[in-house]
Amino acid sequence: MLPTLTKPAVRVCLVVLIFHMAMSMAAGAQEPLSKSPVPRLIDRQTEMNLALSACPPAVAKGAGVYVLTRGGYEKARDSQNGFTAIVQHSAPTATEPQCMDAEGSRTILQRYLKVAAWRAQGKTPEEVRQLTKEALAKGELPAPARPGVDYMLSNANTVPNEKGEHVPYVPHVMFFGTHLSNADLGVGKELGPDGQPIGPAYVAGEGTPYALVIIPVGAHGGTAHSAAHEDR
Fold it and tell me: Considering the domain boundaries, does residue 165 fall inside one?
């Protein structure tokens, strides 16, 4: 289980949520991104708990849940409130529990499901990127039509920074569909020691249809979950 990070770690990063990130390791350690073509599978109930750990408690009670299988994601529970919880793998080795609202479920979630299905078919990372690009261009994967929220309140986030290193990341909230840039937030191009833009908030995927405003919020008040056993 990854420990809760303190405020000095707030700038340890996220970015690259738009296409490809990276998975689990001990807190504080860093390593190059894995070349594994597909994410490793974990116990179904463990994954459901991990996905729901991204949600605020009041949202988690009614959120739908997806879990990863050898054939891609499958729905484990229907949503009762419009929110959907899922452990996203923007890179095959990333661990990114997310809890997105109805607009995110209509748009962002569909891209996650497609990418997982392509990986399960044996597509290479380059083929997945190209297929995603083509699907976006054809309108097969719609961009958000309004601003919305995607919670990542889990204490088990591990993502790559802009230097391509695996790092743990504190609980945070993401807002999509804002059309904001780092310049709008007063954030420059200079990167901090963690390889991320310097500022209390910043934009990941700047200039893309899925750009996200990232706002760290510190420790999650709910129960943290971690993957106990992984298997193929």
Answer: yes
